[in-house]
Batch of 2 targets.
Target 1
Amino acid sequence: MSLNAPRATREPIFNLPAAVAFSVLVLVAIHALRMLLSDETDFKLLIDWAVIPARWSVEYGGIPVSEVMSALQQGAEDETLSPLSALAQYVLGEGEGRPWTALSYAFLHGSWAHVLINSIWLAAFGTPVVRRCGTARFFLLCAASAIGGAIFYAFMNSLQVLPMIGASAAVSGLMAAAAWFIFAPVDWLPEGRPTQAHERPRERLSEIVRNRQVVIFLGVWFAANYVFAFVQPLGVTDASIAWEAHVGGFIVGLVLFPLIDPLPARRDGLSS
């Protein structure tokens, strides 16, 4: 065997781009630091930086505080009414909308399982997006998807006083972005090697909906959202999943990615 024989090019599984590795480390570090806080301090941090839809509804939507309080009383048991009412009075009594929580909530998580699952998905789908688009566009996509998820969740739960946290909306936006190209047909480059996922031309939307792999991928994603939102199997999560935030982030990622994609769409579409 010749010592000069070319080696097949491979991308190590754990060779994460710096932007993705940094993002994962930040999420893990923030959650680890929260473990060092007292319960009172952590609660205050959660209230200050999480998305609370009722706070936005009162401040920006013109909904009176009395309507929020009335919604809490409808169908509530006596033992659950008092804590929720107290929380609502505490949150809404501040009289602040806190618009920055549309982004800051994505850095907070409810448990180690929550942050680790999001980190795994972030690494899986953020990696091809960074390699294709670069660091700046990656962070833009994450931020826009997180904000879109927060807004859609607040719209669907306008009177909710419980805080919503997690990077799932940003991760969902990355999933949607990756769906544009990771399942595209493999091409061959002039140097004789097949294109990697992030090098392939973006598919047209009409081609995506006809791509069986994409349909299966999206079907599994939506099914997983349903399972974790309404079934919560085996105690994997500590609270219900905000599926509305996932959907909002996904829609933003799907719409935004073609606008920031540095590569053109595939030109040789399917022949009729």
Target 2
Amino acid sequence: MLLNCYHIELVEAGCDEAGRGCLAGPVSAAAVILPKDFYLEGLDDSKKLTHQQREKLRPIIEKEALAWAVAFVDHEEIDQINILNASFLAMHRAIEKLMLIPQHLVIDGNRFKKYADIPHCCIVKGDGKYLNIAAASILAKTHRDEYMANLHQDYPHYNWKQNKGYPTIEHRNAVVEIGLSPFHRKTFNVSDPQLTLSFQEEV
């Protein structure tokens, strides 16, 4: 069973990102502050849920959260600062957009760059442990999926509506055969006929 908060006595925001391992499109992040007594049947790590389940939970989270925000870092920024820093930046932007200032942050994963003077904790697999991180994982995922589905209309040959920019065999083959779109990350290279994926992830 997921817990409501890490620090129940504080106004706490859960943060998570989506799209870090994609070949194309932005990385997204969400920050969510839930009520202390919040409970939502089926809320869990977005990776454990189907597309339909995530889409069903999204409007409930957005309606019932005390505050929520989603932010993006685009493919060009990712190429400039690398994907790890882009993930941190996306979370910073989401926190900055919150209508309620959190007193504490819980971050999914094991690394984070401090935001302002707000204390934080990194929780490995936190999206399967805390409701606010799970809610953030769903918002980050669904908003990014929606963005990629819209891009698909102009670039249907990469099938982003289905793969959302992730490096499926079909997507990698399309890059090899057609080349990169304007929305591909140039530092994420499909570098040979074996379709190996390489990218830099440094602080």
